[in-house]
Amino acid sequence: MTDKELAMIAREAMEQAYVPYSHFKVGAALLAKDGTVFKGCNIENASYGATNCAERTAIFKAVSEGYREFEKIAIVASSGDIASPCGICRQVLFEFMPDGKVILDSDEKGMVTYLVRELLPLGFSSKDIK
After folding, report:
1. DSSP letters of 40-73?
2. What is the pLDDT of residues 14-39, one digit of tens each?
3. What is the SS3 assignment for 87?
4. I want to staple 62 with a disulfide (CB 3.0 to 4.6 A). Which of 14, 51, 54, 67 is the partner?
5. Could you give the residue numbers annotated as active site?
């Protein structure tokens, strides 16, 4: 699957976002190594700490279905600008795909790509708790 195709799926996912407070929709599309794609959107809550980001929604859906290996994730936002993953999402991405690709697509700046390791260079892993 191309990066552009994955970004289009992320745009579809963004339309399902539940954002009654910020009105800032985010969509993510996660590609598993076997080619399966999992969509995620941000889901807000009146108790802001209970809000979940699009990236984690996609990863948690995939993990709950038994998937553990991922190649890349595309992320888009309704602002039209690039939306980089928050710190918590970067750590979750590092857990499941430290060498994976993060595709950030925007109407204003086009597409940029990073490796998870670039976004979280000193990510905490299972090696750190042994």
Report:
1. EE-B--SSGGG-B-HHHHHHHHHHHTT---EEEE
2. 999 999 999 999 999 999 999 999 99
3. helix
4. 67
5. 55
